[in-house]
Amino acid sequence: MALTQRVVRLSALRPWRVLAAWGLVVVASVAAIATLLGSALSTDASITTKPDSVRADELLVGNFSQRNAIDEAVIIRSEKLTAKDPAFRDFVAGVRSALEGTEATRAVSDPYSVDAGPAISQDQHAVAMTLMLGDNPEDGIVSVLDEVSVADTDPVFEAAISGEFTLDHDFNELAAHDLEKGELQFGLPAAMVVLLLVFGALVAAFIPMSIAIVSIIVAVAASAVVGQAVTLSFFIVNMIAAMGLALGIDYSLFVLSCYREQRAFGQDKLEAIIATGGTASKAVLFSGSSFVVALLGLLLVPDTILRSLAFGAILVGFITMVAALTLLPALLSLLGDRADALRLPLFGRQHAAESRFWTRAVGAVVQRPGAALAAGVLVLLAAAVPVLDLRTGTAGVSSLPDGTFSKAGFLAVERSFPRTASSDPAQVVVFGDVGSAEVTSAMDRLETSVADDSDFGPPERQLAPNGQVALLSIPLVGDPDNEQARAAVEQLRSDLIPPAFAATDAEVVVGGTTAENIDYSNLINYWLPIVLAFVLGLSLILLTVVFRSLVVSATAVALNLLSVGAAYGLLVLVFQKGYGSDLLGFQQVERVEAWVPVFLFSVLFALSMDYHVFLLTRIRERYVHSGDTVDAVVHGIAATGRIITGAALIIVVVFAGFATGDLVMFQQMGFGVAVALLVDATLIRMVIVPAAMTLLGPWNWYLPSWLHWLPEMHVEGEPSVSVPEQTQVYSR
Q1: DSSP assignment, residue 385?
Q2: How far apart are CA 107 and CA 110, in angstroms?
Q3: Distance CA 375, CA 153 (A)
Q4: Domain range enclosing 315
Q5: Which of 4, 191, 414, 423 could be joined to 281 by an S-S link, Cβ 3.0–4.6 Å?
Q6: Across the beta sheet with 105-108, what order do the strands follow?
Q7: Secondary element (H or E) of residue 106
Q8: Phi and psi dihedrals of 577, rounded to 5?
């Protein structure tokens, strides 16, 4: 008897003990979440390597008191009054006094001071006040924003704020809203509707949802405990919720469908649960293993957010597997046939083990496998072609909704101070003997080279008290994340700084928001092929071991690459090129978010491998009994088509909820996952897979002699497990 069968049998024989154990775990998890989660998660994002932008920030923090840096810029504008009018002066003085009165503000510049620099716009209708915040700017920025909001209510004046912490505040607020909307307001209700349609009964639909919810609660609690020792991003909760929902429902759907089949074959309740433990539960174990393998690649990337997302998904994946092997059979043991209670009209009828729709559909495919395979592959390749134009980066503040503080502040700065005021300048940090004649001359040369360049504003120079570090703050034009700003920083790094400092021994690095985004994009682009190779290699090995076939493994990897490539291509087509973006309510932007491609690859590969293991298990199970590849393919797809499509639809609607959000990054993530899973569950699984397996015939199960030492996993069930034959055998 297989290990999964023994675990399932033990859980089914002692269901109340299992439920009591899980109940205690859930209660402890809720307590852990209530007491530990708040201190476990962080909104900070960082990369663990040290590119130039990180090195620049470390030099500034270590050598400047409070960094003496501008954190935010407040713009006051009036169309009726000029900056010299007494009423304008009085209003500015009042706003300045209010800002100085907040606990967050350490200093506020006076735009009328003689040493304030170009703080009055050329048209004389706007002034800029720069703010330096205190020790806790992330929390303190809220009080500053409140004062700016109050100032903006005056009918004569407009007040706006722009800067790093304003942008972070807006981003966190929008992210929390988008994620809550995607999961709670849209995803969970839609998932429940799909479950009802798939099972046609309230109780049967509730079981997968209960497994998912329990797994999510326990995984969040585990992350709260782990977060006391290591830094975890607050996004981990959303990843756990999304993946817990996906896996909890997927695994439950597959186990419940197999249990229903065993009962339909005449086995009693306990026999059906144990038989399911030898087939469906074993498939869950290997499917979960493939899911974990596909997400291990994200742990390689030296980025705290991606590592947190991967850890959360792996954690909830493991817990969901345990729940599917223990809690689910316990529930089935208690409920028995009552799992089909409270049937719905129309949808509540008993469904045959093999779907007539999918039998007819796949029957058409295997009749003309060559044409079906060619058509399917050509469609996916056509969808993938735009990926050749893929550019990664950051959408930037200009892509935010108009009602946000940072978007209004950006527009105000761009309108009144396009080249003279910037809270996100390029920070050129010089380390060495900055007081020497050679280094001073080099800094002069750099300032001269940017003075007449329209991509830069007038630079400001600051020297650290220790005489070892100098900071040249060079304003960039427009959005710090747009193409012009990125090109300007690249020009600084490659064309302007090297010749200016060629005759010195000083170390020169460029930091600031734009430089950080460039370095992050370069980091992700470097690691993406490594992650791809790592995940594909491990997946190939795992599938070869599970199914004892090099052909099945290689085919699965190739098909998953096709679906991911199509998702990438459609992302470029919709978001970069703008085709259909207005119709779908998306924004056209210059670049796809840097983290989205590597995230999409790992998540899509993980979920599609989930479905592929389920499908191949049923095909292999039938092939072992019949020896007929075509019959096995038709049976496998007909038996799983409804389940796989339903499971995929649940994930599609969850991520479609993310795509309705305001942040471009979540629009891209939601759209990419939703489209790719639709393609994977329909075109890949139901057209290309049966066509390819039909053409390959017995070669599907080819394993070279030098690999015959691999263990026999029997994922389709132990030879001793009786799996009743279907009466209908499809033949070509």
Answers
A1: G
A2: 10
A3: 60
A4: 1-42+201-342
A5: 4
A6: 105-108, 126-133, 72-77, 158-163
A7: strand 105-108
A8: -90, -15
- For tokens 């703010």, what's the residue? 131
C-beta neighbour count of 582 within 10 angstroms: 10
Q: Which residues of 111-143 are buried (b: 16+ CB within 10 A; e: fewer)?
A: bbeeeeeebbbeeebbbbbbbbbeeebeebbee
- Beta carbons of 480 and 424 less than 8 angstroms apart: yes
Contact between 274 and 505 under an 8 Å Cβ cutoff? The reply is no
Could you tell me which residues come within 8 angstroms of residue 376 by beta carbon, excluding any fewer than 6 positions away? 683, 684, 687, 688, 691
Confidence of residue 728 (pLDDT cuts 50, 70, 90): very low
Q: Where are the beta strands (DSSP E) in 91-180?
A: 105-108, 126-133, 158-163
Distance CA 288, CA 284 (A): 6
* Average of per-residue pLDDT across 112-122: 75
Q: Under a CB-based contact definition with an 8 Å cutoff, are residues 91 and 120 in contact?
A: no
Tell me, yes or no, whether 252 and 394 share the same domain: no
Once rounded to an integer, what is the mean pLDDT over residues 558-571? 90
**Euclidean distance between CA atoms 47 and 620, whole angstroms:** 44
Domain boundary among 317, 342, 367: 342
- Of 105, 156, 136, 182, which is closest to residue 43 (Cα–Cα)? 136
Q: What is the dihedral of CA 486, 489, 494, 497, to 10 degrees?
A: 170
How do beta strands 105-108 and 126-133 pair? antiparallel
Separation of alpha carbons 261 and 639, rounded Å: 10
Could you report the per-residue pLDDT of 637-657, keeping only the tens digit for each? 888 877 788 778 878 887 887
Alpha helices (H) along 575-731: 581-584, 595-626, 629-659, 664-679, 689-696
Q: Which has more confidence, 706 or 375?
A: 375
In the chain, the number of structural domains is 4
160 phi and psi angles, rounded to 5 deg: -145, 155
Which residue is it, tokens 């399911």?
Answer: 276
pLDDT, position 714: 59
pLDDT in tens, 502-558: 888 889 999 988 898 899 889 988 998 998 888 888 888 888 887 888 998 899 888
In a domain, 683, yes or no: yes
What pLDDT, in 10s, does the model give residues 175-187? Answer: 777 777 666 666 6
The 3-state DSSP class for residue 462 equals: strand
Task: Check whether residue 364 and residue 483 sit in a common domain.
Answer: no
Q: How many CB atoms lie within 10 A of CB 9?
A: 18
Domain presence at residue 451? yes
3-state SS class at 668: helix
* Whole-number Å distance between alpha carbons of 161 and 172: 17
Of the candidates 553, 545, 569, 537, the one whose C-alpha atom is nearest the C-alpha of residue 692 is 553
Distance CA 629, CA 623 (A): 6
Backbone φ, ψ for residue 108 (5° rounding): -130, 125
- The CATH number for 430's domain is 3.30.70.100
Question: Distance between CA 681 and CA 668 in Å, rounded?
Answer: 20
Global pTM? 0.81
